[in-house]
Amino acid sequence: MSTGEGPGCGAWIGVEDRYCCSAEGLRRYRTGLRCPLHTPAAEAGRPESPEGPGWPTAAWSAPSPLSSSAVIDERAVASGKRRSSPSTYRAAQAAIKARKDSSDGHQQQ
User: Fold this and answer.
1) C-alpha distance from residue 16 to each of 11, 20, 35, 39, 100 (Å)
2) Alpha-carbon distance 48 to 37, whole Å?
3) Could you tell me which residue, 15 or 109, shows the higher pLDDT?
4) pLDDT classification of 94: cutoffs 50, 70, 90
5) Model pTM?
6) Integer Cα distance of 21 and 33 in angstroms
7) Does residue 27 surpass a pLDDT of 90?
8) What are the residues whose beta carbons fall under 8 Å from the beta carbon of 97, sequence distance 6 or more?
9) Percent of the chain with pLDDT over 90
10) Is the pLDDT of residue 106 over 70?
11) Is the pLDDT score of 107 beyond 60?
């Protein structure tokens, strides 16, 4: 006796006392693989939703802290107000110092 677990539709057909086991047009649902006749929408008497790409990736993903690192103000890093690695801290301090040195040179001329 089949358990409905296998390569075909796992819908139980109670009147016939068997699983469907159709292998055509299968789609995966929470309840398992289903053929077009036994999808949750078909069993509820609703039309099938159209196939498509689904939700955009950004709809389900949280912003990465790595992508927000580009927004970090180097002055905040250089002042020590924002945490960073020692090498990033030194690089930010050097960038600020270089910027200050170049602006001081323009003022003296």
Assistant:
1) 12, 9, 17, 18, 84
2) 10
3) 15
4) confident
5) 0.42
6) 9
7) no
8) none
9) 27
10) no
11) no
Specify the residue for token string 């196939």.
Answer: 51
How far apart (Å, rounded) are the C-alpha atoms in residues 76 and 79?
A: 5
Which pLDDT does position 46 carry in this prediction?
93
In the block, tokens 């086991």 appear at 21
| Exposure on the CB side of residue 5, measured as CA atoms within 13 A | 1
- In three-state form (DSSP H/G/I as H, E/B as E, the rest C), the secondary structure along the chain is CCCCCCCCCCCEECCCCEECCCCCCCEEECCEEECHHHCHHHHCCCCCCCCCCCCCHHHHCCCCHHHHHHHCCHHHHHHCCCCCCHHHHHHHHHHHHHHHHHHHHHHHC
